[in-house]
Design a protein that fits this description.
The complex is a heterodimer of chains A (502) and B (333). By secondary structure, chain A is α/β, with parallel strands linked by helices. Chain A contains 18 helices and 20 strands. Chain B starts with 8 loop residues before the first helix and ends with a helix. The chains are: A alpha/beta (502), B mainly alpha (333).
């Protein structure tokens, strides 16, 4: 094996009290595709940020072509030849493709040579073996096209190590193929690709070596030929695979609490129909961009549907505002805790009482602060929110605990129907299991639950039934017994066309 | 409608703006006697000459997702301080004097810029603060005295009535030429200069700018320094135009410049905008402003209200446009 181009030795990094990375060591050799796998919270993002100069490690050293270096900022990473592309591409929507590609260049003269700019951009795009008009503004590009722009940008900067962070998470099957072929093209040109993905099948197809991280620690680095699918998963989760898929038995379905027929939001999604029963968990599966969240937002009245019927407990209702949704007993636990869910600068108890404040009023509209705190305290115990008391500001809590506060806040509205959007995104493995248990317990109490999730193992672990969406269309509803990771993925990515609803 | 699709939405917006401008002029021509005259042209162009440089600087700041509310106070400081300075240094070369005015402006702009980009204070707060601070400093510094034309050198006093070109009774004044020159330089720089793309990049997607190894803080600082320098140039033009400078010089120019910029199609959320648009926006705002003084139907006190209304209209129209455009291409989940 040739000498490594990039080596990380004993890298550690902590944030406040939690260690994101401890003692991680691995290397990248020229012209290899090196996969990095690990569950959410395993430390992959921190590792990427250290390699790209966004974070500085607390300990350990980085070697570039055998020489110790410190990557102080993104410019330094760029100067070495390290670049990264992300699931959410980093493009400038107001600039066109060619401008986006060459935005980081300092050596192309003081003045713009527009003719040369477009010619060079075309040449780079061609080198990647794809077709893309260099004149198009980036705001109109698909995610896959935006990634191509980013890869071309990296290539133009003589990239030697290209980090791809979950590059295929939002792509269609066809686009995935194109990305994999781009990765192979880069490899053939001597570029090393660090390929970070949850999709193990892709890793087995393109990677030369694979490194597993778990809980911020380096678990293994092996040639791909030396590992099996099962062994990899075992390394990732740290336990044998049979316990991994353990699932509470599906509840017997209760009454239909929500019935949706032909729900449409013009230009966003169309023809979504399903029944939701008391005590069941219905998961919305699909890729990012499949409009699952939009269906959730329509049911909660944030972005109301433009057509179709919604009935709650057998009664037809019209929901055009969250207020109306809450009156029907619908609550929405949003994915973006920071933007849509929580007031970060307020204490836990104020956050919990916020949507149901009317019930905490005393005479003359004064807020009953004692009652507020009492209720908050009961949730703190029930959901085991880890904080000294309920006065703690929500912004100071970890992601998992914030998620629990958000859940408490909506539970206090006494909902019949709970919609979860990515209930465990960005929270660690332990908290994830707790959130899952809480959700199952709620279902057992008779709450009807819709969970929107991109995390397939989560879907399979939680759901009684699965509704698969793709590009604003409902691809089918399945009983969990009939679902496998592969069958859901095939529908979500469009490898398999519309299935019969069961 | 289908043929309109060919144009970039920005281009469509400029065409629409030009149409509104023509309609406004036609409207006032029908309302005000002797409207389309050399006198009115001079009145409007020399008013545009003061606002245009400020609007250009403001546009660059707004492109980076910031705002500069201190420009009015800056015009006041430069006009007053430099007016006093030239009273003592009558022999100074005019070109050197203009550069000094711009340097003083750029220095004040750098104060804003450092606080915004390195101090991480939102620009609306920083420049709201310096709006008051610069003005108060001016009041203290001036001790409520007025700079009069008597103390200024002859070339400066004569400057506003000097013409670059004349045709059929209409003429273009030197101070107007200066503002147009500034616009021309800014237009060339923003379309041709490689480094200028960074203003758009930083405003378009600040996170991506970090990963594209653009020094965001420096770009924002430079934007504020340009805004300051442009306010300095406007301060010089103001000094030449009026001759008599009091402590209220430039009061309210921040509102006018923001109006010109957003009416001119610079996205208030950063990332896009063109100098052509800013010029059209400035002219439209000034035409309305100056015509209302002469229009008998409404009181001239409505001028500010109308400016405010124009800002809100322009931004609302843009937001609606972007939203429907965004829907066309389908935003993410």
């Amino acid at each position: 094996m040739p000498a490594p181009i990039l080596e990380l030795r004993n890298i550690s990094k902590s944030f406040a009290m939690t260690a994101a990375l401890s003692d991680v060591t691995f290397d990248v050799v020229p012209g290899e595709i090196h996969a990095i796998v690990g569950e959410n919270g395993a430390g992959k993002s921190t590792l990427i940020k250290i390699m790209t100069g966004v974070y500085q490690p607390d300990g350990g050293e980085i070697l570039w072509e055998g020489m110790p270096v410190s990557i102080r900022h993104t410019q330094a990473a760029q100067a070495l030849g390290i670049a990264a592309i992300f699931q959410e591409p980093m493009v400038f929507p107001d600039l066109d493709v060619a401008e986006n590609i060459f935005i980081s260049h300092r050596d192309r003269g003081t003045f713009m040579d527009w003719g040369k700019l477009y010619a060079d951009a075309d040449a780079l795009i061609k080198q990647l073996g794809v077709a893309l008009d260099a004149h198009r503004p980036a705001s109109g590009l698909t995610l896959a096209e935006q990634q191509t722009v980013e890869i071309a940008r990296a290539l133009s900067l003589k990239v030697k190590v290209l980090i791809m962070d979950e590059p295929t998470a939002s792509l269609s099957a066809h686009e995935v193929e194109r990305l994999l072929s781009i990765a192979r093209t880069l490899k053939a040109q001597g570029v090393s690709v660090l390929y970070i993905s949850h999709r193990l099948d892709e890793i087995f197809r393109v990677a030369d070596r694979v490194t597993v991280l778990r809980d911020g620690k380096h678990i293994s680095t092996k040639p791909i030929a030396a590992v099996t699918h099962e062994a990899l998963v075992k390394d990732m989760v740290g336990r044998a695979i049979d316990t991994f898929a353990v699932k509470t038995k599906a509840n017997p379905h209760g009454d239909t609490v929500l019935s949706v027929k032909g729900l449409v939001r013009q230009g966003v999604f169309s023809d979504v129909s399903f029944d939701l029963h008391a005590g069941e968990v219905l998961c919305f599966a699909g890729l990012v961009g499949s409009r699952r969240t939009d269906v959730g937002l329509a049911l909660f009245g944030v972005e109301p549907a433009t057509g179709g019927e919604i009935s709650v407990a057998g009664k037809a209702v019209r929901i055009i505002s969250p207020q109306q949704a809450m009156e029907q007993g619908i609550a929405y636990v949003s994915e973006d805790r920071r933007k849509l869910g929580l007031a970060m600068t307020l204490p836990i108890f104020s956050n919990i009482s916020l949507p149901s404040l009317a019930r905490f009023l005393k005479a003359f509209g004064w807020i009953d602060r004692t009652a507020e705190r009492k209720v908050a305290e009961s949730y703190r115990e029930r959901l085991s929110i880890r904080s000294p008391n309920t006065e703690t500001h929500v912004g100071k809590l970890s992601g998992g605990n914030q998620q629990k506060v958000m859940l408490a806040k909506w539970l206090e509205t006494k909902p019949r129907i709970l919609i979860f959007d990515e209930p465990t995104r960005g929270i660690d493995v332990g908290a994830k299991a707790e959130v899952h248990n809480i959700m199952r317990a709620l279902a057992k109490e008779g709450v009807a639950i819709i969970a929107i999730s991109s995390d397939l193992p989560e879907v399979l672990a939680l759901a009684d039934r699965v509704l698969v969406m793709r590009e604003g269309r409902q691809m089918g509803i399945f009983d969990i017994a009939d679902c496998t990771q592969e069958s859901v993925m095939a529908l979500a990515t469009g490898q398999q066309e519309l299935a019969k609803a069961s | 409608m289908e043929s309109l699709r060919k144009f970039h939405p920005q281009t469509l917006r400029l065409i629409a703006l030009a149409l509104v401008l023509v309609l406004t002029v036609v409207f006032f021509t029908s309302q005000i006697d002797n409207y389309f005259s050399p006198r009115m042209l001079n009145r409007i162009t020399s008013s545009v000459a003061v606002i245009l440089p400020i609007a250009i600087g403001q546009a660059i700041v707004v492109m980076t997702r910031n705002i500069d509310l201190s420009v009015g106070s800056l015009v006041g400081i430069v006009a007053y301080v430099m007016g006093g300075f030239i009273g003592q240094h009558q022999g100074i070369n005019p070109a050197v004097f203009v550069v000094l005015c711009m340097l003083l402006g750029a220095f004040c702009g750098a104060i804003n810029g450092v606080l915004v980009s390195y101090g991480r204070v939102p620009s609306i707060i920083v420049t709201l603060g310096t709006l008051a601070l610069f003005r108060t400093y001016l009041v203290e510094y001036s001790e409520a005295r007025t700079i009069t034309t008597d103390s200024l050198p002859k070339w400066l006093v004569d400057l506003p009535s000097a013409s670059v070109v004349e045709f059929g009774g209409f003429d273009i004044r030197v101070i107007v030429g200066l503002a147009v020159l500034a616009a021309l330089v800014a237009w060339l720089a923003l379309t041709r200069l490689r480094a200028a793309r960074q203003f758009y990049a930083v405003g378009s997607n600040p996170d991506a700018a970090v990963f594209a190894s653009i020094n965001e803080a420096r770009v924002v600082l430079i934007a504020f320094m340009i805004s300051g320098a442009m306010a300095g140039l406007a301060g010089f033009i103001f000094l030449a135009k009026f001759g008599n400078i009091t402590v209220v010089a430039g009061l309210g120019f921040e509102l006018k410049s923001v109006a010109a910029v957003v009416v001119g199609g610079v996205n208030i959320f950063g990332g896009s905008g063109s100098i052509v648009g800013v010029v059209l926006g400035t002219v439209l705002v000034d035409v309305i402003d100056n015509s209302l003084i002469r229009w008998a139907v409404v009181s001239e006190f409505w001028r500010e209200a109308l400016l405010g209304l124009l800002i809100m209209l322009a931004v609302t129209a843009d937001t609606l446009m972007t939203r429907s455009f965004g829907r066309l291409r389908g935003s993410q989940n």
